[in-house]
Amino acid sequence: MDVSGSLVDRFGRLIDYLRISLTERCDLRCAYCRAAEGTCVSRADVLTADDILAIAEAAVRVGVKRIRLTGGEPLLRSDLADIVSHVSRLPGVEDLSLTTNGQALASQAERLAAAGLMRGNVSLDSLDPQVYSAITGGGDLAAVLRGLDAAFAVGLAPVKVNVVLDCPAALERAPLSAFIRLIARRPVHVRFIEAMPTCSHVTYLPAARLLDELSRRGSLVSVAGPAGGGPARYYRVDDAPGTIGVIAPITEPFCSQCNRLRVSARGELMPCLFSPTGLPLAEALGGSQPTDDIVALLREAAAVKPRRYGDIALPARIHAMHVVGG
Ligand code: SAM
């Protein structure tokens, strides 16, 4: 496809990455992710597997090459393997990944890999079972670790782990040393992410604090990141097979490199994670020419994509992360 057919926004950013939220529901309750109040949209109003395939098909037509399935918790969708199977077979999809809390990954990894899933990111905020359970509102750390093992066993590589730095005490609660032991044992890429302010959450720990702590262990050795690109910077620690990474959307925003649009589980197309409203994909899906209409909305979303999320005032950021899809 020539570049004129691709999605390029008004700031010259090439949009070739789509995140699709499969559900607002989640089996965990991380405070930084959920709306303080709020119920999830009913199942009947969530995009169907056919809707998702139609959106992915249209996106690929305008040059989208990477697709991530997220939520809510995508493993809660009973038709997830079907969705993966159809989307992964679309010509032009070079990278199909999943973000999950890993609670049910052990039992689903093999089926998903066989269906065409290429890799996975697993959220894991602490390696202490009690702390993990407290952060997640009852999550089972052992289940996530079994999920990581299963992901490696079926070749969902590279496996990345997301740790959200959601408060000033984040590193006391989830010590770096524990994650360094994890990357010494497995080729996993652990990324510490500054919590983004949302309607229900405002605190974070600057990623620089993590880097200070890492540098106290020796010099900081930057390394190229694993496949999958993205805004993380990675560091090698001793001879560990894995790496430590940081993602600093607050202290070092990377909006100038943003290459993505998002689709919420209700079928809104979000130009930016913090867009107060989305474009109505769900309506386009019901029309007589859905592919053309979806393509038109993708172009419109690129056209109105803000230069940076900071241009959207905090009170207008109405979405919790589980709603728009992290
Ligand atoms: N349920 C899945 C999971 O737990 O990974 C996928 C959805 S979750 C919204 C996707 C990612 O967004 C997770 O890695 C989560 O930690 C991250 N996230 C949620 N709220 C966030 C916030 N306020 N700032 C930064 N990352 C956040």
List keywords for this structure.
single chain; 326 residues; alpha/beta; TIM Barrel; 12-stranded mixed beta sheet; two-stranded antiparallel ribbon; 18% strand; binds S-adenosylmethionine
In total, how many beta strands? 14
Strand order of the largest sheet: 9-10-11-8-7-6-5-4-3-12-13-14
Structural class, from secondary structure content? alpha/beta
- N to C succession of SSEs: EEEHEHEHEHHEHHEHEEEEEEHHH
Q: Any idea of the CATH class?
A: Alpha Beta
CATH architecture: Alpha-Beta Barrel
User: What proportion of the residues form beta strands (DSSP E)?
Assistant: 15-25%
State the CATH topology: TIM Barrel
State the distance separating the first and last CA atoms: 29 Å
Please indicate the count of domains: 1
Label the overall shape. globular
Helix percentage range = 25-40%
CATH superfamily annotation: Aldolase class I
**Biggest sheet, open or closed, and with what strands and sense?**
12 strands, mixed
Low-confidence stretches: none
Q: Note the total helix count.
A: 11
Average residue pLDDT: 92
Small-molecule components bound: S-adenosylmethionine
Over the alpha carbons, how many angstroms does the gyration radius reach? 19 Å
Brief summary of the model shown:
The chain is α/β, with parallel strands linked by helices and 326 residues long. The chain has helices at 49-61, 80-88, 105-115, 129-136, 141-153, 170-173, 176-185, 207-216, 281-285, 290-304, 321-324; strands spanning 7-8, 14-15, 17-21, 66-70, 95-100, 119-123, 159-165, 188-194, 221-223, 233-236, 243-247, 260-263, 268-270, 279-280. It has one domain (7-324): Aldolase class I (TIM Barrel).
